[in-house]
Design brief:
heterodimer, A: four-stranded antiparallel beta sheet, B: 252 residues, 0% strand
Chain lengths: 260, 252
């Protein structure tokens, strides 16, 4: 399902002074099955943009369309994986995956479906465990299984591997790539890691801060699974652009600090 | 196991010191009865079932009162968590009432309901309700926004969201509320029973005091302390530990 974002602006009101513009006139088109990364320095509004697409926040102006349906509120056709696994601690692993399936499937169907996706993320043996008994990486796997079981048209991921250690992150990146190739889902993936963005996505959208906006849109035409050597030139290109943006933000912050 | 031995030795030492002081006979038996005398009155009380009746009666008051205060407290807590106006008005009142020791209500209860069991239960309910209310309120208000967001993206909203997410997410606070409600109610119960016409542990305590039977007074104090800590540690703390671990708020 195509995703269209038109003239999307988000402002947050302030107690004293004019509202802060977090996202300014964002224009973005995504094709079905595309893996798109939103990359940018902190404060560029990439997570806010994701929340808006998820329907968890309301834009100040502009519209978003998933296919021919306007996005106005959260719904199961837009699955979200958050930075924290967001599993319900009072439910075991299986019941967590079943949560979005409760209303649409009978018991046998949803159990089978939950177990199928848990096996897919290599947690087939942990269906009856509780979240607190799992490591951070395993919890995030459950969250991915849960969102896949829901079969959303659009998969939104907000720095899903950001809180994990390097090894776990690499493993999960590879798993996600495999799953994405198999399931052919449209994915919007928020990250602050250039390598992660280049490694996984078809397109890298580079965002700048103050106000949050799109400053570049790179196509990544490299063969999967991607090799470090192939990725290096693009990574450097992104890096130089990102560095300029970060320098600008730092300068602004410094002058702001000095003038106050 | 070591803790058990340490505890046993500590209490043994305490009893020996107590026995030593009583044996010096500086104060009369009616002021400092010996441990043996206390043991004897406890034994006799249990033998002729009077203390058993008292304990049963006290537990009846407590359970009815605690049940009512959990019911009222939970309902009131929901209201305060869900309605801002209620929180700003009734919430302030609840906070004020929470700081009033429940014994203060005893004279009023006696005027309204007489010296019987209804008065006692009334005071117990007052004792337990407000702490339960505040904990339910906090529990519901402090549900992680992440849980709500996640549930909404999975198609849960309205009553389903409240029943399947908000409610279970607030259980740790509810369990703490339950434990505190028990502790507050137990104290309120004893205060109310002291001025009642019995039966009940508090009533028998004040009765024994009227007849200068200090060994029974101390015996009942020991029973009250024992039951209080026993229920707290073996029932409520166990439940609380289990819930906190499962909810990932405490490592095992």
């Amino acid at each position: 399902m195509n995703l269209h974002i038109n003239q999307l602006t988000k402002q947050f009101p302030q107690n004293n002074g004019p509202p802060v513009t977090v996202l300014d006139q964002i224009e973005l088109q995504m094709k079905e099955g595309e893996f798109v990364s939103l990359l940018g320095p902190s404060g560029c509004g990439k997570s806010t943009l994701l929340s808006l697409i998820a329907g968890l926040k309301q834009p100040t102006s502009g519209t978003m369309w998933l296919g021919d349906k306007q996005i106005i509120k959260p719904s199961p056709d837009k699955g979200v994986v958050f930075q924290e696994a967001a599993l319900f601690p009072w439910l075991n692993v299986q019941d967590n995956v079943i949560f979005p399936l409760r209303k649409t499937m009978n018991k046998k169907q949803r159990n089978e479906r939950a177990n199928f996706f848990l096996q897919k993320v290599q947690l087939g043996k942990y269906v009856h465990h509780y979240p607190h008994e799992l490591s951070g990486g395993m919890q995030q796997r459950v969250a991915i299984a849960r969102v896949l079981a829901m079969n959303p048209k659009l998969l939104l991921m907000d720095e899903p591997f950001g809180a994990l250690d390097e090894q776990t992150r690499n493993v999960l990146q590879r798993e996600l790539e495999t799953i994405w190739i198999e399931a052919n889902k449209t994915i919007v993936f928020v990250t602050h890691s250039i390598r992660e963005a280049v490694k996984l996505s078809d397109r890298v959208i580079l965002m700048g801060a103050r106000p949050g906006r799109i400053i570049a849109d790179f196509k990544v035409n490299l063969e999967r699974p991607r090799k470090q050597a192939d990725m290096a030139p693009l990574e450097e290109k992104v890096m130089s652009l990102l560095k300029a943006e970060i320098d600008k933000v730092m300068k602004e912050e410094l002058s702001y600090a000095n003038s106050h | 196991m070591r803790t058990v031995i340490k505890r046993f030795l500590f209490f043994l030492l305490l009893i020996l010191i107590w026995q030593g002081i009583a044996a010096l006979k500086i104060w009369p038996e009616s002021m400092i009865p010996s441990p043996a005398a206390v043991g004897k009155s406890l034994f006799e009380g249990f033998k002729d079932f009077t203390l058993i009746y008292d304990i049963v009666a006290s537990f009846r008051h407590l359970l009815i009162g605690l049940f009512l205060s959990i019911l009222i407290g939970t309902a009131l807590g929901f209201l305060l968590a869900k309605s801002k106006t209620a929180d700003e008005t009734i919430g302030t009142l609840v906070l004020a009432l929470q700081s009033v020791p429940s014994i203060v209500w005893v004279p009023l209860a006696i005027i309204w309901f007489g010296f019987g069991e209804i008065s006692i239960i009334f005071v117990v309910v007052i004792g337990g309700t407000f702490v339960m209310t505040m904990n339910i309120r906090t529990g519901i208000k402090n549900v992680k926004p992440l849980f709500i967001d996640a549930a909404q993206t999975m198609g849960s909203n309205g009553f389903d969201l409240f029943w399947k997410v908000t409610l279970p997410a607030s259980i740790p606070h509810a369990v703490t509320g339950l434990r505190l409600a028990w502790a507050f109610s137990w104290r309120a119960l004893m205060a109310a029973e002291l001025l009642s016409t019995g039966p009940g542990l508090g009533y028998t305590l004040s009765y024994a005091s009227d007849f200068n039977n200090m060994s029974l007074v101390i015996g009942i104090i020991i029973i009250i302390g024992f039951i209080g800590s026993f229920v707290d540690q073996l029932v409520f703390q166990k439940i609380e530990q289990k819930v906190l671990t499962r909810w990932g708020l405490q490592s095992t």
